[in-house]
UniProtKB/TrEMBL annotation:
Nuclease recorded as keyword: no
InterPro entries attached to this UniProt entry: MFS_dom (IPR020846), MFS_trans_sf (IPR036259)
Origin superkingdom: Bacteria
Protein name: Major facilitator superfamily (MFS) profile domain-containing protein
Gene3D superfamilies: MFS general substrate transporter like domains (1.20.1250.20)
Annotated keywords: Membrane, Transmembrane, Transmembrane helix
């Protein structure tokens, strides 16, 4: 990207970056933890997302400062160097290549107690889980891309909208701390239900178009999204066990990535033609679908 002489090369660079993100962000990390730690991976998944919650909080100001100081091309070179000099050696040298579990701790497809469900029931359960996570991914990607536009169309000033948007990051971290310390005693299905309700309440409060309530709304929404990020890793592990965990994570990631790509585009059309209120109502309806589906999942 830093060397891109024209727009097609710039788009090609984003294509490579997108492929790298699909292979190297939470889904791949969760699969790795599930492979290494088996059913005991929940605490590590939560801890990983807790640390990851600071990525945008620390990274965006740092990258913005570098861009202002050195220009965007040199900033790209610095980021590429960090990936190669810091990130790559960690992946090559610090991550074990084989599970540390004993033979008894590793589940197999032939062990019903570990895999949790028979094949037919498992396929139905995987489909329901995919619907829940994909719907929430669509909501999250839409809100992430269009939040400032939605707030401004509701009559909230740009400066206030920016401050409201900043509530999401700290709320995610706070919710993940709560998950790590308190909610870890809940079944992941119940954590997911709580998170979906928080998201729905947050989006619904935005419809009132009141600035101080919008701060509360984004606090609730951010908390819900923070917990749902953890649920992406812990819920499949709890429902199916560690056997073929990486494969299931890959199957679940496909529709989620499609939703993340298409959701903001469709949302932009709704915003342009019908305004922010209709978009928020649609988002609330999708959250309601997610909540209904969550009650079809086992919670013990």
């Amino acid at each position: 990207m830093g060397l891109a002489p024209n727009l097609p090369t710039y788009y090609l660079a984003w294509t490579f970056i997108g492929a790298g993100m699909a292979a190297g962000l939470y889904d791949a990390a969760f699969s790795t933890l599930g492979r290494l730690l088996g059913s005991d991976a929940r605490a590590s998944i939560t801890g990983l997302t807790l640390l990851g919650g600071f990525a945008s909080t620390l990274g965006w100001p740092l990258i913005t400062g570098m861009e202002h100081q050195f220009g965007w091309r040199h900033t790209c070179f610095v980021l590429a160097t960090v990936h190669l000099v810091i990130g790559l050696p960690i992946h090559l040298l610090a991550i074990p290549r084989s599970p540390s579990l004993t033979a008894e701790g590793v589940s197999t497809p032939d062990n019903p107690a570990e895999s949790g469900v028979p094949d037919k029931s498992g396929s139905r359960l995987l489909l329901l889980l995919a619907v829940l996570l994909t719907t929430q991914s669509l909501v999250a990607s839409t809100m992430s891309v269009h939040l400032l536009d939605v707030l401004e169309l509701l009559g909230i000033t740009t400066a206030t909208a920016l401050a409201i948007g900043m509530m999401v990051g700290p709320s995610q971290v706070a919710a993940r701390l709560a998950e790590f310390s308190i909610a870890r005693y809940l079944h992941p299905t119940w954590s997911t239900r709580i998170a979906v309700v928080l998201c729905g309440l947050g989006i619904g409060l935005l419809l009132l178009a009141t600035p101080w309530l919008a701060f509360v709304a984004m606090g609730l929404y951010g908390a819900g999204i923070g917990i749902l990020t953890i649920a992406r890793g812990t819920l499949p592990l709890a429902l199916f066990g560690p056997a073929d965990y990486g494969t299931r994570m890959g199957l679940l990631a496909r529709p989620m990535l499609l939703a993340q790509a298409l959701g903001p585009v469709v949302a932009a059309l709704i915003l342009e033609r019908s305004g922010s209120s209709l978009l928020l109502i649609v988002m609330c309806a999708l959250v309601a679908v997610s909540l209904a589906v969550s009650f079809t999942l086992p919670d013990k």
